[in-house]
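Project standup — Tuesday

K.O.: blocked on the structure for the chain from last sprint. Re-posting the sequence here as requested.
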Amino acid sequence: MEKIDFVVTYLDSTDKEWQKERACHSGEDFDESLNNEARYRNMDNFQYWFRAVEKYAPWVNKIHLVTYGHIPEWLNVNHPKLNIVKHEDFIPGEYLPTFATQAIELNFDRIPEISEQFVNFNDDLFLNSPTRPEDFFYKGFPVLQMMHTPILASEAFNVALFNNMLAVNEAKSPKKRLITWRNFSLRNGFFAVAANLLMLPVLLFFHKFIGFRPDHLTQPFTKTIYRETRELLPERYKFASKSKFRNSETITSWFLLDYLRATAEFYPHNSFKFGKMVPMGLDQDYKKLLASQMKVLCFNDGGTEIDFESEKVRLNKALNEKFSKKSEFEK
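H.V.: unblocked you, prediction finished:
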């Protein structure tokens, strides 16, 4: 079995040095709507991320913790599976400093000694039940769901999805295929296959990709797919990498997943059963969700309308009940 690494980004938005440098670079191009507090606030539950990995993915080869420079005080930095990676360790100097997730994630293949196959996590993505390597890679292929869906003009965030799909259609690769057996594999789930059948006339009429349903879950990548797409679209990568902050014109790491779907270089699965993105709020029963058989849960705190502090307390209480035992990643 090939080695599989995990990559997780960590941010301590209370770091005074980080705050000062961020303020120095917030100029005229700074878009407050895309870089608000919700993008940077600390959930104070990162230790549960490590406890979940130790419990549910003991097979992981290495964990690369990507950070501006700050490290949790409780972290056991001497753990043999842990690699602390600062931005300057892998992002070309011409792009630093950066406060944009896109710029950081689109350079992950440059992390020294990262394995060919790796899985990208955000720190709000928790393993929730036992996993196997085959949940992320099968016979060398990243495991993904394929579900064709038009990109809706329903929220500002969908501009990123549009940019990604535009880049997929721009990429001059002979490997792209509008129709393959993967479109109609029931491994995607019945609903996804039905959607793909419904979209078939549209795909054939325009002869372009119109969009894929994004998974706000773990992201299985290979170094090869990074390098292939960077060679195909160097200006797209360069523009994203030089962005100091999130903006509405760059591609994101989800572009890589879309490209994998467009070239049929993935193995299908039903992500509706694999994981769930949970918007935090009073209507959520965190304890019940954590008792489910979902393999991955994303607790999204992006909404500005929630009482963040009280929801954080509720969520962290439920996480502590499930993951009460300290991991070897903690001092």
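K.O.: great, moving the ticket to review. The chain has eleven helices and eleven strands. The longest strand covers residues 4-10.
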